[in-house]
Amino acid sequence: MARQERAIRTRNAVLEAAATVFAEHGYESATIMQILDRAQVTKGALYFHFTSKEDLARGVLEHAVTEPPPEQPVKVQSFIDMGLLLAHRLPREPLLRGAARIAADQSAQRFFGQPWQDWVKLTAQQLTAAKEQGEVLPYVDPERTAQTMVAAFTGTQLMSQASTQMSDLEERVSLLYDLVLPSIAVPGVLGRLDTSPERGARLYAEYRVAVEARSAGG
């Protein structure tokens, strides 16, 4: 059991190190030596768990899969909450940062396709539900709006990374929603929406409680 736990810790350390290196340098420029140096493990230990840099990147993408925040009665709020929660988590979670950089890295797409398409699909579903409830303007196309919002979030994230190491990402994403929502949501819904930068932290606290409850339930 002790050996198994040690192997799990080593694998997690390698994944987090790889994610950090990918986030800092991009997939193409990242090297196995940089990952080894960051993880402080031997080459043998790394290759015991992962066969290549591509395998490492796939591991980062798989382990960064995250659930959306709890559904809200106002579906536009659910759409907002997904972005605010992600903006809170990205600066704090290496696996998410690494996955986001891989997803945005054009040089990596020949290996991994377009991982952000899942995000576009989920966003479009949220906007479709909001439109069915009469919360968005009639001309809003959920699919095209979702693609635009994912692209805008990604650009905002990269700008925040370059200028402040994502320390202001929550504020930037909050402003993004403030600027975009008047062209999406009907006036009667706008006044009921919470786009504050602090909302992501509150959602994260609720998210952790839900995860721990599920873990305890087995």
TrEMBL record:
The keyword Transcription regulation applies. Residues 31-50 bind DNA. Gene3D superfamilies: Tetracycline Repressor, domain 2 (1.10.357.10). Keywords: DNA-binding, Transcription, Transcription regulation. Signal peptide: none annotated. Pfam families: TetR_C_45 (PF21935), TetR_N (PF00440). It comes from the Bacteria. Residues 8-68 form the HTH tetR-type domain. Coiled coil: none annotated. InterPro entries: ArpA-like, CprB_TetR_C, DNA-bd_HTH_TetR-type_CS, Homeodomain-like_sf, HTH-type_TetR-like_transc_reg, HTH_TetR, Tet_transcr_reg_TetR-rel_C_sf. This is Gamma-butyrolactone-binding protein.
